[in-house]
Amino acid sequence: MRSFDRREVRTLASLLASAAVLEQDATCLESELNALGELSVTGFVEAEDIAALRRLPRESVRVADVEHLDYLIEEFF
Question: What is the pTM of this model?
Fold first, then answer.
């Protein structure tokens, strides 16, 4: 993560958030949310980059993974 610049982090975050909203596989969704959490610690992610997550129905996320979603929502919105 530390080798990415601001533009790369923001681009990846945007792509991952968009993918998460459309994701059908629970394991992949977990990985996308984990990756977003890791990217967020760089300090480069902005709310607009992950705004798509607001469209992700909370009930579609496994109980074990809701923590990741909640962290991102609380941190950025």
Answer: 0.92
Which helix (H) or strand (E) is 28 found in, with range? helix 26-40
User: Which positions ≥6 away from 2 have C-beta within 8 Å?
Assistant: 42
| CA-based torsion, 28, 6, 44, 22: positive or negative | negative
Do the Cβ atoms of 17 and 51 come closer than 8 Å?
A: yes
CA distance 23 to 32: 9
Residue 3 — very low, low, confident or very high, per pLDDT cuts 50/70/90? confident
Q: How many CA atoms lie within 13 A of 76 on its CB side?
A: 25
Give the pLDDT band (50/70/90) at residue 2: confident
Distance CA 37, CA 15 (A): 14
Task: Quote the CA–CA distance of 51 and 56 in Å, as a whole number.
Answer: 10
